[in-house]
Amino acid sequence: MARVIELNKSVTESNDKDAEELRSDLKEQGVFLVNIMSSPGSGKTTLLSRTISDMKETTNIAVLEADIDSDVDAVKIEDLGAKAVQVHTDGMCHMDAGMTRRGMEGMDLDGVQLAFLENVGNLICPAEFDTGAHKNVMILSVPEGDDKPLKYPLMFSMADALLITKMDTKEYFTFDLDLCIDHVKKLNKDIQIFPVSAKTGEGMDAWENWLRDNLF
Ligand SMILES: Nc1nc2c(ncn2[C@@H]2O[C@H](COP(=O)(O)OP(=O)(O)OP(=O)(O)O)[C@@H](O)[C@H]2O)c(=O)[nH]1
Ligand SMILES: [Mg+2]
Q1: Among 129, 82, 74, 131, CA closest to 109
Q2: Model pTM?
Q3: For helices 97-105 and 15-28, what crossing angle results, to 10°?
Q4: For residues 147-163, average pLDDT
Q5: Is residue 132 in some structural domain?
């Protein structure tokens, strides 16, 4: 059983200000926070699990798991030996900065260098709320299709990095990687793109080096 925190909608109306304050407070503590967004089942928890296994010898990692219900994702992360707290969003399809702060305050951040927020699985609302993270990362998995940047442009436009996951399944799906990258670059020319498989480990080095380069 993981620690579970029940959250209500933040009372404050100034999300952008709260987000700036959280970003700055976490930086002062030396905690680099990464917001992970994607549709349900695209592979956020699996990607985080692989990343933790690869990096845990050298980097102190904590994960804030946000879901509508259950603690299954936080339990998976704790089983790997990383710190995890599960937050429930009271039915809401995204995390905001106030909720993220309360979740982070529920975690022992002593010595933590890298923290992930696994946002609620959804390609729309999470892109509209600044959580206070230092970087926004989105995941698109091969089975979802190469046209998703055309249909959900906001998240692709605001992300600092895109992981194209489940590359090991590419032969079973019609997914044109170059075309997908082309769509994404038209929306966001500065985005970092990492094709990966959390199952085989393909491409994980480049993603993990990007994380290491960004630590405070
Ligand atoms: N073949 C393959 N399967 C993967 C990969 N990454 C994740 N999966 C599978 O995809 C399914 C969903 O993965 P999760 O990591 O639970 O996805 P999620 O985005 O955390 O899901 P929610 O938290 O429910 O939104 C699981 O069956 C994983 O085993 C991958 O790289 N390759
Ligand atoms: Mg998950």
Answers
A1: 82
A2: 0.96
A3: 30
A4: 97
A5: yes
